[in-house]
Amino acid sequence: MRIILSSLLAFALLIGCKPDAKVEVLGVSLDDAQKVDGKKVRVDYDANKELLEILCLLPDSAMASWEWKAFERRRWVDDIKTKGFVMDTSETVMNVKTITPHFLDYQVVDGTWKLAIYKLGPRSRLVFTDDVTGGHDINIFLFDGKQLQAREDFLKALRHALLPADAAEDCLGTWAEEFPFFDFDCSRENSLLVTMPAIDRVSNDQCLIGNKVTFAISGDGFKVEKAEWLGVKASD
After folding, report:
1. Which tens digit of pLDDT belongs to each residue from 157-171?
2. With CB atoms 3.0 to 4.6 Å apart as the test, which of 23, 184, 215, 226 could cross-link to 222 if both were Cys?
3. What is the edge-to-edge ordering of all strands in the sheet holding 136-143?
4. What angle do CA 26, 31, 35 make, to 5 degrees?
5. Other C-beta atoms lying within 10 Å of the C-beta of residue 125
6. pLDDT of residue 73
7. Cα(57)–Cα(36) distance, rounded to whole angstroms?
8. Do residues 41 and 85 make contact, with C-beta atoms less than 8 angstroms apart?
């Protein structure tokens, strides 16, 4: 017993004497620091309070591929609130890549998970989640300061907004299966960037307004701010 206790004490002293794990202030990408196992990540709860509290309100279905349950999210946020930091203990699971008052990006087992909140009014927010595991499982909600309301109509409108005004009726069906494989950049505070670089203009400009589309965010949903074609140009 004395040998075991002595060994444990020696181990505890060894840990206590090690230099503290690298501390990163969130608000910028943490990719370069993720190789440090057991990294302590300092998070300012007050600065990120709205995003963190909305995170706790999201339904489990918004992160179905990796099952981050509501009670686990609440515990994680409560730890941030009381301790001011979280521990990233794995290089592939539950790694914080970026957190700002507007945007959270997590590295998970087989992809990433993203949460963005867009300000619509004094209390109202548009909430956008993207579960990126092989494809993009998008969820959109409206937040009134107290509750979240799922808005499937906003998601449908986003799909339709990618089509030309005179697009044939079958265009939406043509791209329905491809939509989950478009890239969605929700890291910007006031806009959403949708890109599909593998899709060229020559074969697709009858059914898409571009392969790089920037949307402005408003209470009515998504408004096309800029649409362009990158790469191959349409033939004359």
Report:
1. 999 999 998 888 888
2. 215
3. 95-99, 103-108, 111-119, 125-132, 136-143, 148-150
4. 110
5. 22
6. 92
7. 31
8. yes
Going by pLDDT thresholds of 50, 70 and 90, the confidence category of residue 22 is: very low
| pLDDT tens for each residue of 130-156 | 998 878 899 999 999 999 999 999 999
Please name the residue ranges forming H helices in the chain.
2-17, 49-57, 70-83, 152-161, 171-176, 201-204
Domain boundaries, the chain: 1-150, 152-236
Own/partner long-range contacts of 227-235 (Cβ < 8 Å, ≥24 apart): 229/200, 229/201, 229/205, 230/197, 231/197, 231/200, 231/201, 232/200, 232/201, 232/202, 233/201, 233/202, 234/201, 234/202, 234/205, 235/202
pTM score of the predicted model: 0.79
- 3 state SS of 212: strand
The beta-strand segments (E) located in the chain are 23-25, 39-42, 85-88, 95-99, 103-108, 111-119, 125-132, 136-143, 148-150, 183-185, 191-195, 212-218, 221-228
The residues with which 226 forms a beta bridge, in sequence order, are 214
pLDDT digits (tens, 9 = 90+) for 180-205: 889 999 999 999 999 998 888 988 88
Q: Which two tokens stand for residue 69?
A: 């349950």
Q: Do residues 179 and 187 lie in contact, with contact meaning Cβ atoms separated by under 8 Å?
A: no
With beta carbons less than 8 A apart as the criterion, state whether 207 and 175 touch: yes
Inform me whether the pLDDT recorded for 16 exceeds 90. no
13: pLDDT confidence band, cut at 50, 70 and 90?
Answer: very low
